[in-house]
């Protein structure tokens, strides 16, 4: 009886995370072999929820069971009052219909409703669901009148992450047929920022970045570079695999400064050092952090001037120190070309930051994305066939980035180098 009571108390305690408890338990609680299967970092508050249900859809990057869902209210001035959450499996974003019999009602400390205070987050209790890498997980949330803490992942992506919104009024979370829901909205997620599970995967890689990691403007219909990386790792034997969590936010900065594009800071998330705990260190199973940021700092905008190289370097050094202090490995990625004139102050700052990334020894390993995508004839720009605009690769460029990463930086062999069975 005493053991049963202890288990129940542990589950309740692990279920609700305030910012303080999330920081105190960076591995995400006491569930054994728990890893983060997918992530979509929240950016800001975008209005108030109508009397309708949002069916969020995310794709997992590793096999797992006993799924847990995290809901967040990091930017709300009022509480997130969740009346119901349903979690199921979705065959395709072409339809809001779920796999028959897969929909489960989530609980939080064994209760079907939960209130998340401003600045807080909450993990569900484990759900009796099993997924394989590449499966779509549907999280239907009914929280009318609550502040919409959202991740806005701009089109042209047509695949996950994304969501369907019911016509309302009322709770449509139990609807497996999908009849209550409208068309798919690519990139629009409310409140759901992570999915974890018990898994044979060795741990999780978190990609901390800006729009290049988020996949903005990756025209061509292909996956983001983080998805390509997850595909490659998924070809390894189960015991060697790692999951991949995408913590990219379009417009994000690596240094603590005013956002160059939005004085309200609702478009682009807090600067990377300020969101490091919530978006990286509080997640279950994190073993590696891959940092690709700095473009927005160095480029500047209407609300912030271009940052000097020293500002970006100091921010990266701060992030790496905190990641290392938590016991994780830190991978640095060089900053892509930005179409700035050779010899100009912006290009000189980018080159200085990249040289520091390559040579400072701050990182456990370096992936040289600049060298991979730059045009040999003009290293201030991305190669024409791999770029959408001055800052962003297209889908072909994203695939090149994902395929260019040497898996040994994560302690992994290349799939082709594995011995043949038999």
TrEMBL record:
Residues 207-400 form the SGNH hydrolase-type esterase domain. Pfam families: Lipase_GDSL_2. Keywords: Hydrolase, Signal. Gene3D superfamilies: SGNH hydrolase. The keyword Flavoprotein does not apply. GO terms for molecular function: hydrolase activity. Residues 1-24 form the signal peptide. The keyword Aminoacyl-tRNA synthetase does not apply. Coiled coil: none annotated. PANTHER family: GDSL-LIKE LIPASE/ACYLHYDROLASE, PUTATIVE (AFU_ORTHOLOGUE AFUA_2G00820)-RELATED, GDSL-LIKE LIPASE_ACYLHYDROLASE, PUTATIVE (AFU_ORTHOLOGUE AFUA_2G00820)-RELATED. This is SGNH hydrolase. It comes from Amycolatopsis orientalis (Nocardia orientalis).
């Amino acid at each position: 009886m005493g053991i049963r009571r202890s288990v129940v108390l542990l589950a309740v305690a692990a279920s609700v995370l305030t910012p303080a408890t999330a920081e105190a338990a960076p591995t995400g609680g006491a569930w054994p072999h728990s890893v983060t299967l997918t992530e979509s970092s929240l950016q800001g508050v975008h209005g108030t929820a109508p009397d309708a249900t949002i069916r969020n859809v995310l794709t997992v990057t590793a096999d797992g069971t006993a799924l847990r869902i995290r809901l967040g209210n990091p930017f709300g001035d009022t509480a997130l009052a969740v009346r119901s959450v349903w979690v199921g499996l979705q065959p395709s974003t072409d339809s809001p219909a779920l796999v028959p019999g897969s929909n489960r009602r989530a609980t939080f400390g064994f209760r079907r409703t939960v209130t998340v205070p401003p600045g807080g987050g909450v993990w569900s209790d484990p759900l009796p669901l099993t997924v394989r890498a590449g499966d779509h997980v549907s999280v239907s949330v009914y929280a009318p009148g609550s502040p919409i803490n959202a991740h806005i992942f701009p089109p042209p992506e047509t695949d996950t992450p994304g969501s369907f919104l019911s016509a309302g009024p009322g709770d449509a979370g139990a609807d497996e047929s999908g009849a209550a829901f409208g068309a798919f909205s690519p990139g629009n997620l409310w409140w759901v920022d992570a999915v974890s599970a018990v898994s044979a995967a060795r741990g999780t890689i978190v990609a901390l970045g800006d729009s290049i990691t988020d996949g903005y403007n990756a025209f061509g219909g292909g996956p983001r570079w983080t998805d390509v990386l997850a595909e490659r790792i998924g070809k390894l034997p189960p015991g060697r695999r790692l999951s991949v969590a995408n913590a990219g936010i379009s417009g994000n900065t690596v240094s603590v400064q005013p956002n160059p594009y939005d004085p309200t800071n609702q478009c682009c998330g807090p600067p990377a050092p300020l969101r490091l705990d919530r978006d990286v260190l509080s997640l279950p199973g994190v073993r590696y952090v891959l940092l690709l940021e700095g473009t927005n700092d160095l480029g500047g905008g209407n609300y912030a001037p271009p940052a000097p190289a020293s500002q970006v370097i100091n921010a990266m050094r701060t992030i790496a120190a905190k990641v290392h202090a938590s016991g994780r490995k830190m991978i640095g990625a060089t900053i892509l070309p930005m179409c700035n004139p050779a010899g100009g102050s912006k290009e000189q700052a980018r080159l200085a930051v990249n040289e520091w990334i390559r040579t400072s020894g701050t990182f456990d390993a370096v992936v040289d994305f600049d060298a991979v995508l730059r045009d040999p004839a003009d290293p201030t720009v991305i190669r024409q066939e791999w770029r959408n605009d001055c800052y962003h690769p297209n889908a072909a460029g994203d695939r090149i980035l994902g395929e260019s990463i040497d898996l040994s930086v994560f302690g992994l062999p290349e799939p082709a180098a594995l011995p043949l069975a038999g």
